[in-house]
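Project standup — Tuesday

K.O.: blocked on the structure for the chain from last sprint. Re-posting the sequence here as requested.
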Amino acid sequence: MAGKPKLHYTKGRGKMESIRWLLAAAGVEFEEEFVETKEDLEMLRKDGALLFQQVPMVDIDGMKMVQTRAILSYIAGKHNLYGKDLRERALIDMYVEGTTDLMGMIMFLPFQPPEEKEKNFALIIERATTRYFPVYEKVLKDHGQQFLVGNQFSWADVHLLEAILMAEECKPDILSPFPQLQAFKGRISNIPTIKKFLQPGSQRKPPADDKFMAQVKKIFNI
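H.V.: unblocked you, prediction finished:
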């Protein structure tokens, strides 16, 4: 029997957070080995564990998987969260790419110079409310189903909820114009595995603070 997946990354969200979300949604218990210093990262590189010299890396099913998208696709496929056929998989991929774009903007905001943060924060709100959320609002309204694709729980739903909660950390009332997304948030948040992950004490990580940002910059020479 294979052991639990082991996640190698910093103690923050970053690119690993979506992997934590998806494993949790699938009901998969996982362990974490944190990269806390530059030396920790170098040790992984010297051990040959990082195919492209980068984290995240996940030890899973006898593989040392790297590249976030590859890891997520593997988990989604393994745990029946990747649609019933090629068409559904294509829709899931499109929706996931959209939420990835939005979450990337939010994720990298703390790394930006102070003089650019206000402008980029406003851009995040603008893009969320005029480019990304209207798409998912329309999808849910048009097909009238509980989930984004194929009327079954998928990776796309997990990713969208993660994006919604990140956007609400920026602007708590950001879903006000989107009744379908408000209802979607309530439904998906109450799926037992998701509900558990949202509880205090789970392996979900908090937003980055100044102390964590300083540590990340030191580890990755940013």
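K.O.: great, moving the ticket to review. The first strand starts at residue 6 and ends at 9. The chain has nine helices and four strands.
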